[in-house]
Amino acid sequence: MSDPVRVAIIGSGPAGLSAAARAAQLGLSHVLLEKTDHLSDTIFKYQKGKHVMATPNRLDLRSDCRFDEGAREAILAIWDEDAAANKVNVVYHAEVVEVTGEKGAFQIKTAKGDVIAAEAIVLAIGTQGNPNRLRCPGNDLPHIIYQVDDPEDFKDRHITVVGSGDAGIENALGVAEDALENRVTILNRSKDFARAKAKNVSDLMEAEENGAISIRTETQPKLVEAGWLTLETPTGDEKIQCDLIVARLGSVAPRAFVESMGIEFTGPDREAFPKLSPTFETSVPGIYVIGALAGYPLIKHCMNQGYDVVEFINGNTALTPADEKDLAAIFAGLPERKSVSEWLDFLRTRVRIFADVSPLQMREFMLDSKVAFFPEGEVVFEKDEPGSSLFAIAEGHALVEVSPGVTVPIEQGSIFGEVGLISGRKRGATIRAGEDSIFVEVSRTAALKLMAAVPGAKRVIERISLERQLLQIFKGGLTAEDLAPVVDGAEVIRVPAGKAVLEEGDEGDDVFVIRSGSMVVEKNIGGKPIFLRYLPAGSYFGEMAVLSGAPRNATVKAAVGSEVIKLTGAGFKAMLAARPQVREATETAVAERAAMNSFIESRKATYSSAVDLYSDTASFIMKEGLGEATDALLIDENLCVGCDNCEKACADSHEGLSRLDREAGKTFAHLHVPTSCRHCEHPHCMADCPPNVIHRGPDGEVFMEEGCIGCGNCMRNCPYGVIRMEAAPPPKPGLLSWLLLGRGPGPGEPSPKWTKANMPEGKKPKKIAVKCDMCKGLAGGPACVRACPTGAAIRVSPEEFLSIARLEEDAG
Amino acid sequence: MATLFRRRRATATQTERVRERRHEGFLRHANFRWAKVSGGLCLLVILSYALIDVSPRPNGGSWYGYTLGTIGALLILWLTALGYRKRRMTSDFWSLKAWTSAHVYLGLSLIVIATWHTGFQLGWNVHTLAWALMMLVILSGLYGVAVYALLPQALSNNRDQMTQMQMLEAIRAFDRQLHAAAQPLPPGEAAPVLASLEQDPFAGGIRARLTGRYPNRATAAARAALTEAVGGDAEARAKVVALLTQKEAALARLREHLRLRALLEIWLYVHVPLTFALIAALSAHIISVFFYW
Ligand SMILES: Cc1cc2nc3c(=O)[nH]c(=O)nc-3n(C[C@H](O)[C@H](O)[C@H](O)COP(=O)(O)OP(=O)(O)OC[C@H]3O[C@@H](n4cnc5c(N)ncnc54)[C@H](O)[C@@H]3O)c2cc1C
Ligand code: HEM
Ligand code: SF4
Ligand code: SF4
Ligand code: SF4
């Protein structure tokens, strides 16, 4: 073993490379360990020619390596140059498998068995992890690949894809493309493709019907040999021809590896990150984590941190972080003058949910938040305004208008607006500043991150939200004190889609509040489950049994994966007993629901087919995932003449690209659900957007602001396949010059051919995510609906659509 | 002011939303608002015509005739503007459904307005030409309304959740499979299959498109030929016959789809050009009235 280096950097992505370059510049002895045979594997694996973006624009780059937006190839070439110019000491094929020792004397072991000694370690291995390998004999043969860069590379071969997730299916469909003349088989260990998106599964089934792919379920590989693959099938072993295996078995997140070094994470959830000090040091002294692994997925952040961390290791404690300027801008509007770190401390000590947040987390967190001064009486938001951010009170207090003229104060240190955060719905009440106050507004994404990273914050937010939600549901002078016994016994239960929370006929008197997701209420009438009602997030059920003591009179099941809060019947009863007004109000609500149930029952007797149609339509709507929609496009195919004016209108109102595909999608009883965004209550697309540009807007729309880097995560995360990665076509001549002179491609999305021919010289098309933004900012509202000549296209929420009025109309 | 304006728009959108929930088509829009307006207009014209005594006799040249003529001409221009409105995606609130509804009912009212404008004096001249063209436009419009009311359901049933692209793709997939499956067949049997593969599913022009009857029936012929054939590799043949049957069904679906779409569109190729002819004739009519009367 050689002399220990001052710092060993593991992983040569933008973070690691930048750190190594700084170390080289400072003259520190260093080594950059990279598992593959090239630098920056994550970016190396981007699609060919991908336009890499340099967001956020306002952030300055601080690194010895260059970086600006441009093609993947250009960026990789520049980094190769910069690594050489800075005399970075890179070791390729050095996959680190174990780290032992302590600060000043670490031993780093690679897969090849080499051991490197280092005084400090910078861990910059990103979040890609390692693909799971095939486990059967022969798994080391070279014709097994774990990724398909370009399906065109494979022609006229026998290809077997192992793995039944989206990646496997997409690869299989890619190589099964007609012109490539491959013979493609896909293996699935289980019976169905439960883990994949519905769209992918239906494409796959279709490909099988068309003979393009053969699907083998309950089958796994048993032995790999050159040219052949032995399969283990339910009916015995079988040998098939196979000269390429694509294994897509998911990947192991690097977390276990990181934890094996003794590094602690902020919590058990998937969203958690390693615990870090303001200098990126982990809970193990001497090991530092930066880049995507630290929770900073943007290349610019990664590179800046690479620079900073080596400066810190080198003893430069005076370094101000590169985001100082941005943070200063966030606090600039406040009446008092304080430095950034003073402000951060001020917030951390004043606000309960920030109490357990580390200084580093606090910096990151504030970048996604706003702080503002509100003079006494100023409205923060109004009732029924959609909104999805959370507010914290750093100074002063807020007043909630519970009913006209009646206000309730919220004290300093507490939060408000949390309902919008949890269910993505409208604000429940108007809020004003009770005195001159300072409020922090936290975006939904930042708040969710905070809850995942800081368990203490999560507890506080959840408790307060439950209290407030109950106060809102059961009005009548209820106070937080009355609720204490109910809230203390409350339990949050996750319910997968389709699972019943209550069954008709069951005994029991628990009451449930829907925290997220939605439920359908069904009753067995004449041997058939009949749809009675749709319950969106924020509603409650189970109260009938408490009041009547009778068994459950209907089944309630989750329309989509949901969370309900269970309140014990006893606690609920005690609350009702304490507040007769609440009891009265609840009784009235119960009577209304009961009346509706009996209305449907009576209709069922006389207009059986109308009720069945209503009920079947409701099931269809739920099956299509509209249970989690807040606003979806539906097409009545009794009226749709197929003119596609909706698509054209959409394209012409949005940079020439349509955000809906009218013809695609499922249909039931002439009700068609086209491929178009439903503005989900809990948008899946938001889950993993590196620049965090997906938001919910003031009208409930889920939209992307500028700054998309085109990574395609949202497209993959949306279960309804409504996001496209597309570059905007060049502007076209006006409508009149098309009508009168025939110039340009006419209304609607221009053909790819026209776009290609008319793209201005030297302009690189940037493919970014495009999806429906509900015509945000257009005074007239959704263009697709306005432009439908026959009235076939409508936009509705499920509760609007499944209203009782509809049944009445159908029944005549 | 700006915000007030926005609020009003928002209310309009909201009302529209409430209405749309009930899936009101363009004919029933706003509870037949435009049917009522148009009916009222017609009634007014008929009654006033009967009541007002224009001397020497009612015709287009009287003040009453001028009034009706002006209303009619303006109405025609406004009806023509639908083609522009349909494609002009301004961001303010308007609903093409409401426009279509008004278009249909006010368009029909022209039958009364224009005919009564003539004072029932028709002859072989440019004036009557304008009237006749207008009646033809209206007639084609009526056809349009009829197909808009009748065919969408058939279109929806026939496509059975498939898109046009998928229909084409399905046929291509059958072709691929046929190509592979026909390999073992002797040349005599392979030939009709090849003919089916080479067949252009669209050949036959507009007539075939509208009737759904295509001259090229290679797939059916191939199936007939192979069903009758004996000897040779019967199993391979059976497979090909099965594929040909499926392809025939796929072709039938695509053709029916194209037929329905064509029926839904074709009339616009009469309606719109006749509109321009009408406007030309109308201009001639107006000019001649002013210059030569
Ligand atoms: C498709 C796609 C598009 C994107 N587009 C953009 C964009 O346009 N702009 C942007 O700013 N961001 C983009 N991102 C995000 C960005 O690429 C990553 O967040 C960033 O690369 C993370 O950098 P990193 O240095 O932390 O880790 P990585 O870039 O992931 O690098 C980690 C390196 O460590 C190596 N390694 C891993 N484990 C070991 C080990 N045990 N031993 C040794 N070496 C190891 C890996 O081989 C790899 O080279 C995109 C991401 C994806 C997936
Ligand atoms: C003189 C009278 C009329 C004129 C000048 C006229 C003109 C037009 C024009 C220019 C269009 C636009 C077509 C396009 O751009 O796609 C149109 C569409 C249409 N017209 Fe008329 N029209 C007249 C009367 C009528 C009548 C009487 C009816 C019905 C009874 C009718 C029914 C329609 C329908 C259904 C459309 C299609 C709307 C759409 O799909 O967008 N029209 N008409
Ligand atoms: S893009 Fe997909 S996940 Fe996101 S809101 Fe729309 S439908 Fe939901
Ligand atoms: S909007 Fe989608 S494609 Fe764009 S950056 Fe976010 S996740 Fe990636
Ligand atoms: S609401 Fe607007 S953005 Fe969304 S599909 Fe309709 S036209 Fe497109």
From TrEMBL, chain A:
It comes from Sphingopyxis flava. Residues 353-468, 474-593 form the Cyclic nucleotide-binding domain. Gene3D superfamilies: 3.30.70.20, FAD/NAD(P)-binding domain, Jelly Rolls. The keyword Iron applies. The keyword Metal-binding applies. It holds the Pfam family Pyr_redox_2. Keywords: 4Fe-4S, Electron transport, Iron, Iron-sulfur, Metal-binding, Transport. Residues 631-663, 699-728, 766-799 form the 4Fe-4S ferredoxin-type domain. GO terms for molecular function: 4 iron, 4 sulfur cluster binding; metal ion binding; oxidoreductase activity. This is Fe-S-cluster-containing hydrogenase component 2. PANTHER family: DIMETHYLSULFOXIDE REDUCTASE CHAIN B (PTHR42859:SF10), OXIDOREDUCTASE (PTHR42859).
Automatic annotation (TrEMBL), chain B:
Keywords: Membrane, Transmembrane, Transmembrane helix. The chain crosses the membrane at residues 34-52, 64-84, 96-117, 129-151, 266-292. This is Ferric reductase like transmembrane component. It comes from Sphingopyxis flava.
